[in-house]
Amino acid sequence: MAEFTNATQILEPFKGVKKVTIEEYFTSGHRTCQGCESALVMKLMVKAAGPRTIVLGSTGCMYVANTTYYTTPWVVPWMHTQLGSSGSAALGTAAGLKALMTKGKMKSEPINVIAFCGDGGGADMGLGAISATLTHKEYNSLILLYDNESYANTDIQLSGSTPYGANTTFSPPGSVKRLIHTRWKKNTAGMLAAGHTECRFVATVCASYAVEMMNKVRKALSIGGPTFIHSLDPCPKGWDYDPMLSHELGELAVETGIFPLYEVEDGIVRHYGKTKAIVEGRGRKPVREYLLKQGRFAHFLEEDIDYFQKKVDEMWDKWEIPGVIPFRRESSVK
Amino acid sequence: MAVETKAAPVVANHKEMLISGSEACAEALTLADLDVVTAYPIRPYDTVMQAIAKKIANGQLVAEYIVAEGEHSQFEIVKHASTVGARVFCGSSGVGWMYAMECLVVTPPLRVPMVCMVGNRALDDPGAFGVEHNDALVVRDLGWMLIWVDTAQEMLDTTLLAYRIAEDRRVFLPIAMSADGAFLTHSQALVQVPSKALVDKFLPRYDRGDLLLHPDNPITVAPQANEDWVIEIRRQNDEAMKRASTVIEEAYADFRKVMGRGAEHPWFEEYMTDDAEIILVGMGTISLPIKVAIREMRAKGKKVGLVRPRWFRPFPTERMVKALSRAGAIGVIDRDYSFGSPFNSGVVANEIRAALYNADKRPPLMSFICGLGGREVTLADVHKATDMCFAAAKSGKSDPKTHWLGVRE
């Protein structure tokens, strides 16, 4: 029996779309909406991880719509976990495997452990458990947050990750109050990267850039210890747009600078893709191009669009690390 | 037996240790070769986690020891570790157990044979470290097997039995072992600790079989079932709990055979009940003042006995009815409350009333609530309760009122 070393699988990046493996581990049998980007994220995530993987799914769309009893789309072992438990599910599964392999009770081999959560399960309820897991550096796991910016499975209610002003069933624009939801979206990936100095890899991804997205997953699973990926997933139902626009909206979120693509590896921040071009000086598209394609912002007046643009501008013009770390040095504001 | 003043001789292949209830649990966990344990601090159960930490630090046990950031995570982590085949342990007290409630709910239907210790503690508010049984009782309807432990020896034995019973494929349900805060968790007694060889003979390895979550067995666990299947899955839980009764009896019989000692039958302890006119009922360490009071009363010719329930889930209905229905009157002393329940009684009194409903002989039943928040149950409390039971036996009528003992009026 191989001696237990706590090593991870080594998953080299796919060098281009033609080099991506053809095997699927998330197949037919799910019931997600037409144009659902999160279902694509599931498919790409586990395609990148390969067959020696255990996936834990916390409550949300990707639980309820994906895994109807007797019709599972998962080719790899999959288990439900509670809404706020993606961090604990990853930690417990990894700890169980480690204990059994250390003690010779199970064949020693690297098994990928991935726990996913929605924005409700990740940015709201499960944040504490994710934070705890990211400090346990001896357990190899990936927590992937698929962020469709609302509690989309329960009827589109706002979460801590819902953008400013969006129309949700808990924040309907009314005749007296136009904007109910006036909180700015949490900077979840930046917060987790900044707060967990021994977590070796945090990244943001968007499935509009599928190969890069898969390669971030592969790096997260290879690097060792707990890792975190935040994926922005356009949602036709929750965002109110034609399902054919899912990819385009993902691209617009990046091109407007609303959702920056970056990775933090061993403390080094690397912007990538179109975000890298923005950092290097290419202009951002105006946020109105993104906002006005979505029914959830249909009630916006010019002043709302202006406010949104101003807040996004701050991310790029004022943050210490653009799009990642919001602090400013005192010397820079004098 | 808690009232013994002289230590029992060391049994073959055992060693004798002076340890607390929590330490006795940790001894058993070491012998059971625990794989994953999660800790979070709350008094009084956390003494068991301190004891396990020392075992690991001193190289007596190899296990993953995870300090969680709250009880919700604490219970979720071991739940998931169990699904990949690890033998796990967890525990809590009072409101900590409540904080984990969502995870306690999902564990039985997932058929995770987790073993936990509940160091019974009063629920907030107001704050109190002392014992009440309402914490553990909150899961009584949810598929958890529940046992109340009285002594450090029983704590060690029950821990070994709990893994054997929970991990039996016919059962695969979690077990919560209740230990009265302070009175058992922190109190030392001489304990006979079996050898590793004996424990290995009694306790097989945890085998999750075709329910193992592993790439070699790519199953989907706990999908959305809805009305299509939920009632069938509930029924499977119900059947497992019914099967547990047989498995429990087998396990105790085998324990006696392997260890050369142990309880005669699993369900409850009987103390001086053979000729008892009055039978008192109470769970956990309340047995000590009751037994002392019974001896005082016996010295004056009053025939009083005690039934101390161990297993509350599954509830030993037939055996309990047989043991109690021969009495002239029954007095149930609850260390818990159930506000607004039938007769405003405690939980145990109402369970026993329900169990007796179809009995041929239903003695008058007196219901008492005593010792909440860890208040001492005095001999005077027990004498007062017993006197009221004698009056009920004489009149042949149950008093519909629930009497609170030792309370400032």
Keywords:
heterodimer; A: 334 residues; alpha/beta; Rossmann fold; 8-stranded mixed beta sheet; 33% helix; 13% strand; B: alpha/beta; 7-stranded mixed beta sheet; 16 strands; 38% helix; globular
In short:
Chain A is an alpha/beta fold. Helix content of chain A is 33%, strand content 13%.
Structure description:
The complex is a heterodimer of chains A (334) and B (409). Chain A is 33% helix and 13% strand. Chain A is α/β, with parallel strands linked by helices. The longest helix of chain A is centred in the N-terminal third of the chain and has 17 residues, at 86-102. Chain B is of the alpha/beta class. The longest helix of chain B has 34 residues, at 226-259. Chain A binds chain B through residues 51-54, 56, 63-64, 67-70, 72, 74-82, 84-85, 87-89, 91-93, 95-100, 102-103, 105-106, 111, 128-129, 131-132, 136, and chain B through 33, 35-36, 38, 62-64, 66, 68-70, 72-73, 76-86, 88, 102-103, 106, 205, 213-215, 217-226, 228-229. Strand 2 of chain A pairs parallel with strand 9 of chain B.
Into which percentage range does the β-strand content of chain A fall? 5-15%
The tally of domains of chain A stands at 1
Summed over residues and divided by their number, the pLDDT of chain A gives a mean of 96
CATH superfamily of the largest domain in chain B: Thiamin diphosphate (ThDP)-binding fold, Pyr/PP domains
| Biggest sheet strand line-up of chain B | 3-2-4-5-7-6-13
Helix percentage of chain A: 25-40%
Tell me, briefly, the overall form of chain A: globular
CATH T-level topology of chain A: Rossmann fold
Reported CATH architecture of the largest domain in chain B: 3-Layer(aba) Sandwich
Shape of chain B: globular
Q: Roughly how many Å apart are the termini of chain B?
A: 35 Å
